[in-house]
Write a structure and sequence with these properties.
The protein is α+β, with helices and mostly antiparallel strands. It has helices at residues 25-35, 56-64, 72-75, 88-98, 118-126, 155-161, 174-182, and strands spanning 11-12, 19-20, 39-44, 46-55, 81-83, 102-106, 112-117, 139-141, 146-150, 191-194, 197-201, 204-205, 208-209, 211-216. The protein has seven helices and 14 strands. The chain is globular and about 60 Å long.
Length: 284
């Protein structure tokens, strides 16, 4: 990450979702809902002239309270501009210190090259490591109080499976939450205290966290029944898995131990304000 430049991971201008600054509030709301973004760049006449960032949390109260005459210009937050050759580690530190969630990337001519969010930067650290664990579930239940999960497991999945209520406005995955809490890349054997649970880094994949152990505090419980003792498997030595080992939700549904002899899934250049394949955060 030290040598990676932001243009290598940014959302390019052709994939950006942005709004003209004179867009009515109700149309802006339609864009927020249809695109699922909590922050949308605002431009004046052309996409190369980004003049502000619209936060959904600023827009919704205006509509809820009937203030339809409010303009996007009034709601626009300042733009954080960076050059396209800035290094990711430097940008991440600057964005954290400045408490901004989105940066607009300028090309060498001063035009808009793309955008990046703080979540995009964190994802470069925790990454999408699913392919490296194709045969393993994201979540494995070891006991009433202990889980082993992959670092790319969505925080919402952990909250749904337990009584935990982990929250973050910047990241969506457990590995990202560890980075956010530690303020650095997690190392093997790191132990992090989070609300309601203790998380330990069990393994790394390259520079990224791989498996994590979550031990629930007494104040937290599982929402799913604990599997019987004879079907608990250690994720440190992956068990033999049969078809049907996963539920529709992606969790491990433990099976009886199997004998070893057994045999065994656009903004374009003219400034149109619709697009796809954007990487910035979903509206929460």
């Amino acid at each position: 990450m030290n040598e990676t430049e932001v243009h290598e991971i940014m959302v390019p201008r052709v994939d950006m979702v942005a709004l003209e600054i004179d867009t009515p509030l109700h149309e802006a709301l339609d864009a927020v809902i249809s695109e699922g973004h909590s922050r949308i760049p605002l431009y004046e006449e052309i996409i190369d002239s980004i003049v502000g960032i619209l936060y959904a949390k600023d827009l919704l109260p205006e509509l809820r309270n009937g203030r339809h005459s409010t303009t996007l210009k009034e709601l626009a937050r300042p733009v954080y501009f960076v050059s396209e050759n800035v290094k990711l580690d430097s940008l991440l530190k600057d964005m954290q210190q400045s408490k901004v969630q989105m940066a607009i990337i300028r090309d060498e001519f001063g035009g808009t090259a793309g955008l990046v969010t703080i979540e995009d930067l964190v994802e470069q650290i925790v990454g999408d490591i699913h392919d490296e664990y194709d045969d393993e579930p994201n979540i494995q239940v070891l006991s009433d109080r202990e889980l082993v999960v992959l670092a790319n497991t969505p925080i919402d999945d952990i909250n749904e499976m337990t009584t935990l209520d982990w929250q973050s406005s910047d990241v969506e995955r457990v590995g990202g939450l560890l980075y956010e809490t530690l303020g650095r890349v997690p190392n093997i054997s790191d132990v992090v205290e989070l609300p309601g649970a203790t998380v330990e880094v069990l393994s790394l994949k390259g520079q990224r966290p791989g498996k994590l152990r979550i031990v629930l505090h007494d104040s937290s419980t599982l929402r799913v029944p604990r599997p019987a003792e004879h079907v608990l498997h250690s994720v440190l030595e992956p068990p033999l898995m049969l078809p049907g080992s996963y539920t529709s939700g992606g969790y491990l549904e433990p099976l009886p131990m199997v004998p070893a002899t057994s045999s065994i899934t656009d903004i374009n250049r003219n400034g149109a304000s619709h697009g796809t394949n954007s990487a910035y955060p979903h509206l929460r």
